[in-house]
Fold this sequence. Notes:
Structural class of chain A: alpha/beta
Strand content of chain A: 5-15%
Number of strands of chain B: 6
Oligomer: heterodimer
Radius of gyration of chain A: 25 Å
CATH topology of the largest domain in chain B: Nucleotidyltransferase, domain 5
Number of domains of chain A: 2
Largest sheet of chain B: 5 strands, mixed
Largest sheet of chain A: 5 strands, mixed
CATH architecture of the largest domain in chain B: 2-Layer Sandwich
CATH architecture of the largest domain in chain A: 2-Layer Sandwich
CATH class of the largest domain in chain A: Alpha Beta
Order of helices and strands of chain B: HHEHEEEHEHE
CATH class of the largest domain in chain B: Alpha Beta
Amino acid sequence: MRESVADQLNEEEEAEINLTPMLDVVFIMLIFFIVTAVFVKEPGVEVNRPTAMTAFTPESGSIFIAVTANNEIWVDRRSVPPEGVRAAIERLHAENPEGGVVIQADNEAYNEFVITVMDAAKAAGITEITLAAAPP
Amino acid sequence: MRKHIASIKHDQDDNEINLTPMLDVVFIMLIFFIVTATFIRETGLDVNRPDQQQAQVVQEEGAILVIIDDTDDIWIDNRIVDPRAVRANIERFHAEDPDRPVVIQTGRTSSAETLVTVMDASRLAGVYNISIASQ
């Protein structure tokens, strides 16, 4: 009986799964997700996007700026006065120099403020500016 | 000798590092990064906002000028145009001269919806060179 138990234990040890390949795969996935993790700063408000038939997905958009229906400009979960937009964009641009600006303007937002944001983005040195629109 | 080697091997077996805790940590990190990976896919239209001087040059070169006034009326060629007719109007100008860009002049209190409508109409008409100017 005693020997039989020992035998079983021995067999179990031999039948142990080799974890090394799985560990390799898991590490590769881990590195992939760490590298691709772009910590996108969302504006923190929901807007009603206008619809456009020709809307496409831009390659790089990681600085999101929302203009709400009451013409408040939101960046990184805070309401920013129009004069402060440029500084806010410059700060986010320094954190992520590759990303373009996506302006999420509400249907009712005034173009005055949308264009203020565009000019602020241009002044901050970003040429890739996208106006958010939902496909119908 | 043989027995000695066997005993060394046995020793090594016993000294093998237990990978399980590390595996746990790695899995937790993996799950964290998968969960926090926000794949935001915002769709939109690209915007070309020229400098003031550039805008004037473009306008002098004979761009298709679309004016959105403060009350959201769309003016093309000195006529008020229905938002649904913008595409047809731009198509007509585009057919006359395919190189003409579109310049959209927006009023201060016009809505972003109208701006996107005009940009969309222009792209549907085949003019992708769109500049936005403000009054």
